[in-house]
Amino acid sequence: MNTETADPAELATLREIFATRPGAAPPAGWAAVRSFEAEHGIVLPEPYRTFVAEVCDGLPAGPPYYGLLPLAQTPPDWGSGRPERLLAEPFPLTAAWLWEAEDDGAELSVEEFDALTDPVFDHGSLLLGTDGCGMYWHLVVTGPQRGHVWQIAGEGAMPFGPDSPDAVMPGTPGFTGWAAQWAAGRSWFPDA
């Protein structure tokens, strides 16, 4: 996965997926992309960067279920009381973390729990959209997972597309692999 240079084959795949979708928003353009990057102190990973600038900046009919968000937007159910999104701060995870399944014998206060999980939701990623019920898809823009797509929900966080036999959401990593999985009508979870 090359996050620095747009692969023409990946862009062709993305154009094919999104070109015929009803309601696809026009591209944001390079000026808007560069402005967003300057405002947040980041460079978006490829091929998403070129996709938003040249192909499409949002799609109401997915992916994900409630649509692909335009650059810099959050879904309506994101909430107004959330911490500030800090895209330049590194995304804190490199492996799935299902905090709901953890039992360390000690109950955390709401404040302690939020201090642990808020960076997962708000650091180093932008929101691609939601599948509802608090399940959000993020594209990591900063840190070791840059370019990977993660599903983050109240129960935990997991990457899409790790190349391992025990992966919860196997597939081709990155934005193009994630979009292609959706376009092919394949489930995110193989046992679903």
UniProtKB/TrEMBL annotation:
It comes from the Bacteria. InterPro entries: Knr4/Smi1-like_dom, Knr4/Smi1-like_sf. It holds the Pfam family SMI1_KNR4. Residues 32-152 form the Knr4/Smi1-like domain. This is SMI1/KNR4 family protein. The lineage of its organism: Bacteria, Bacillati, Actinomycetota, Actinomycetes, Kitasatosporales.
